[in-house]
Amino acid sequence: MSEQYTNLARTNLSAGIDDNDLTITVLDETLFPTTATYRIVIDREIMIVTAGAGTDTWTVTRGAEGTTAVAHSSGAPVVLVLTVQSLLNIREEATELFAFASPPSNHIKGRRLISTNRPSVQWHDDGTDYIPVLPVYTPAAQAFDFTSTSNNLGTSGVNTDAWLFGGVLHVNTYASANPKFWKKNKPGGNYKYTLCLRMDTASGDADAGTGIVLYESGSGKYRAYYYNGGNLKVNNFNADHTFNSNNFNTVVTFQPSQPFYIQFEDNGSNFIYRYSLNGTAFTTIQTLARTTFITPDQIGFCVVGSASYTVAAAQCLGREIV
Description:
With about 325 residues, the protein is mainly beta. The protein has three domains: about 10-80, Thrombin, subunit H (Beta Barrel); about 90-135; about 150-320, Jelly Rolls. Helix content is about 5%, strand content about 40%. The protein is built from one helix and 23 strands. The chain has one helix at about 85-95; strands spanning about 10, 25, 40, 45-50, 55-60, 75-80, 95-100, 110-115, 120-125, 130-135, 150, 170, 180-185, 190-200, 210-215, 220-230, 230-235, 245-250, 260-265, 270-275, 285-290, 300-305, 310-320. It has a seven-stranded antiparallel beta sheet with strand order 11-13-22-15-16-17-18, with no helix packed on it. The chain starts with 9 loop residues before the first strand and ends with a strand. Residues about 150-165 have low confidence and may be disordered.
């Protein structure tokens, strides 16, 4: 249990002790904590009370923190103290390491929890629940390795370092609201693909968007899962890049300049689409059979503009495939 504290706790020994006694008795315990452990000082010796709290007879650890166990006479002052080790314990207890997605079942109000395998994931323990706090989980930035392009998107205007952390990808939208995207062969087997994205629309294009694209190379058809104009959308497109159908559309309340997370999972049976505003708590918005409209063999990153503007830009803060 965490170390205990009370204010102005002071009493006196009711009997003398020698340098090896591990039990002490006090005249009045009422101002001291009712549960162990806590630290006291008698003369110049620090002791740790490990049992007997709430009574006048305490079990103690002698000579703590480099002090020396010596004899003390009856009537010697006994004072509750906050020591250097106490402060170190408070600091350690205020931050606890844990395995990602497996936080401790017991709550300690005010504690900060940090994931051991995803150290940028942090939660605040409010005593009853774990609240995600900044900084939040960001998938690791990776080199720009999408070599296959589609929908009139060439490589001449693309910075090959743009996929690195802080990079911005600018796309000429050709006065069209259809996605322009980079793609690559998808992983084999089951996988989960997460992007941390942010729109960077200096032109003021509120309808611009960015997200994930799933591509069927045999037919040229594709599905785009993206944020666009205040909505999360799952749309199907024909091989000539004309709109085919909408699978899902929902309003999501966040600013385009705010980082957000979208995730696509292939679990072997279905395609699952999720989003998150903090990178830790994902909401499922759509589950589709794997062969609905297309059977994709490539996956990628898309930028969407609108017919009103010629340039859209998106910033990818990181991506992860697991």
